[in-house]
Amino acid sequence: MEQNNKKESRGRLLAQLFVSFAKIGVMTFGGGLAMLPMLERELVESKKWVTTQEILDYYAVGQCTPGIIAVNTATFVGYKKSKVLGSVVATLGMVFPSLVIISVIAAVLSNFADIPAVQHAFAGIRIAVCALIASAVIKLAKSNVKNLTQIIIAVAAFIIIAVFGASPVVVVIASAIAGLLLGKFGKKEAAEK
Amino acid sequence: MMDTLMNILTLCFEFFKTGLFAVGGGLATLPFLSEMADKYPWFTHEQLADMIAVSESTPGPIGVNMATYVGFRVCGIPGSVLATLSLVLPSLIIIVIVAKMMNKYMSNKYVQWAFSGLRPAVTGLIAAAGWSVVELALLDLTDFNIARFWEAINIPAVIIFAVVLFLAQFKKTKKLHPIVFIGACAVLGILLKL
Q1: What is the DSSP letter of B146?
Q2: Which of A4, A41, A58, A86 meets the CB 3.0–4.6 Å disulfide criterion with A78?
Q3: Please, which residues bridge with residue B165 across strands?
Q4: So what's the pLDDT on residue B25?
Q5: By the CB < 8 Å criterion, does B38 face chain A?
């Protein structure tokens, strides 16, 4: 009997994890730091699953581990509440709304993409996208590219990709190794972020 | 049949790779998608730029939206589901491991050193991916002539670019949702027949 109750409450918890993260997935545009208020409202205030400090820690780790930060946060919270199964369910909840919405849009777009007005609209939209990416790069550069070593690494990464067309994987691995070597043998200033 | 299967496998592999190597979230998946546009016939750089706009104006993390969108373009609903799952699988595995030893991981000096190199590099990577959109939206390189390079510059586009970039940085307007800029530029595109 007790076994059954336990099973049932875990089932309910998993369902709640899925629904909560699906809700967060629906209500955040763009992801990243923009979704922090949503996470707080749903996970800290409403469900009381984690504290704000924990969410910030998850963010910090999410920023330093591969993958999408929003998804990583979902995995973390899911794991905390219900181990591996919880992390899987929370992650699936997080991606579920995008999966549905984007599939619908993709289906519609491929039919509409030949209309001239749509093409003009997207020509305009591409300009906005350029500006938004440029703006994101400026913000990133302000916090990550400050001293000479960092400028050299950033410019080298840009040239290797934009001019030589190498794979980003190469740059990710090489820059991590460069960071390790600078930390081990370089001047102290270079290793500090 | 075999072709579709191979396509799906390649798709899964590419997004698994993206999920494994895209560090830092947000636009960090962009360089990998840009590489896919070069390597596979799945989508062009133009379609990628359109995808970014669609992702920025719909809910959900951009990386997930991109995976769904690309997957759908390659082979419909199964493609969108598989690409998305492949994208989140590596981080799911890694985060579960990290969650077990959270504090140790972040304070480890080797991890910190590696990230001191990674962070500026990721900035450069995203800039490079942005450059491929710039070539598309602001320049016309079809019959590029170095002696008359200015003819390649799409002047109205550059002006709109400068205005949007300014607004995205300006204190009073930078909190505006990206969808505002995207919507405004879509209207301008139709009005000016860009």
Answers
A1: G
A2: A86
A3: none
A4: 60
A5: yes
Nearest in space to B53 (alpha carbons), one of A117, A32, A130: A130
Q: B157-172, pLDDT tens digit by residue?
A: 899 999 999 998 887 7
Using an 8 Å CB-CB cutoff, list chain A residues near B57: 29
- Is residue A83 in a domain? yes
Residues A8-63 pLDDT 10s: 788 999 999 999 999 888 776 655 555 666 777 788 888 999 887 777 777 767 76
A129 → chain B, closest CA residue? B53
Q: Can you read off the two tokens belonging to residue A104?
A: 């619908």
One digit per residue, pLDDT tens: chain B, 194 residues? 678 888 889 999 999 999 988 876 667 788 888 899 899 988 888 888 888 887 777 777 778 888 898 898 888 899 999 999 999 999 899 989 888 876 676 678 888 888 788 888 888 888 887 887 788 788 876 666 666 666 778 888 899 999 999 998 887 777 777 778 888 998 999 998 87
Q: Answer whether residue A11 is part of any domain.
A: yes
Secondary structure element (H or E) that encloses residue B177, with its range? none
B140-175 burial, b at 16+ Cβ within 10 Å, e below that, comes to eeeeeeeeeeeebebeebbebbebbbebbeeeeeee
Nearest C-alpha in A relative to B63: A68
Cβ–Cβ below 8 Å for B121 and A171: yes
Rounded to two decimals, the pTM is: 0.73
Q: Show the low-confidence residues of chain A (pLDDT under 50).
A: 189-193
Residue in A27, A123, A153 nearest the CB of B59: A27
Secondary structure element (H or E) that encloses residue B51, with its range: helix B45-56
B12 touches chain A (CB under 8 A): no
Domain containing residue A51 = 1-112
Total tally of structural domains belonging to chain A: 1
Contacts B176 to A, Cβ<8 Å: none
Record: contact A69-B189, CB cut-off 8 A:
no
Nearest alpha-carbon partner for B16 in B95, B97, B84, B98: B84
- Domain membership of residue A157 (yes or no) is no
For residue A171, is it within any domain? Answer: no
Spatial CA neighbour of B47 closest among B139, B136, B131, B154? B136
